[in-house]
Write a structure and sequence with these properties.
Length: 190
Amino acid sequence: MRTSKQTRKTKETEITADLSLDGGAVTVSTGIGFFDHMLTAFAVHGGFGLNLSAKGDLFVDCHHTVEDTGIVLGKAFAEALGDKGGIARYGSFFIPMDEALAFTSLDISGRPYLVFDANFSQARVGEFDTCMTEEFLRAFAVNSGITLHCRVLYGTNAHHEIEAVFKSLGHALHQAVSVQKGTLSTKGIL
């Protein structure tokens, strides 16, 4: 069963995530409306079951909550994938959102890395600082062991630009975690 339950509690945040790589209900509550919308879109478009609850020091700003959510979700993916045997490993996907276009390409390799190329059209969407998109993705990539490349090719609305990133990430991960025969590596392991 490709599932994981992760909990993280610090002086800044308290986060719990239940993840199923093979689908299920999606419920997200972080206290940041736009971030909830993005995580929900990510899970739905990835075909993942996700029950995520985060409480953080939002009186400071959204940084700790967003970054720590990336840590927890990354660890959940790493645990749910186990030894990573029998997965497609690679995934890539373009998503258009009205005037915006984003692309994600990834390798579930055990070698975490983030390449992020985006200049968002606005600094904030609701209570979400757009610069936190990169922080979330970095925390997610490092803690999941994924080589992750994300790029916003163009757009004029930050909501659309970021939503295209999260949806393309979901679709690319859906491809990469799909079950295949054998281990896709010349080394024999990932």
